[in-house]
From TrEMBL:
Protein name: EexN family lipoprotein
UniProt KW keywords: Lipoprotein
Domain of life: Bacteria
Length: 95
């Protein structure tokens, strides 16, 4: 009989905990944070100050890192293009 009462108590506690678990912030994807970089920066700052490690904190950090990598690749491609066509080197006649 105790086993049955324990199961019933566990079922009631589990049902009561479900609404509390759903109260958290909606999960946002890495793509969302890539489109909203200011929000991603704010989120990571809040996560670092609070010591939080939720899914949104990780997605925001990944989005910031991915954006930095993409920007670096664009800058490197632009520099390589300028090196190949010679526009990176100064000229004496101002051209």
């Amino acid at each position: 009989m105790e086993d049955r009462a324990m199961r019933k108590c566990f079922a009631i506690l589990a049902a009561a905990a479900l609404p509390l678990a759903a109260c958290g912030e909606a999960e946002k994807s890495v793509d969302y944070y890539l489109k909203h970089l200011d929000e991603a920066r704010e989120k990571t700052a809040r996560c670092q100050s609070n010591g939080d490690a939720g899914v949104n904190c990780g997605n925001a950090a990944v989005a910031i890192k991915r954006n930095a990598e993409e920007q670096f690749k664009r800058e490197r491609a632009r520099t390589e293009k300028n090196l190949k066509n010679g526009s990176i080197w100064p000229t004496w006649n101002g051209k």
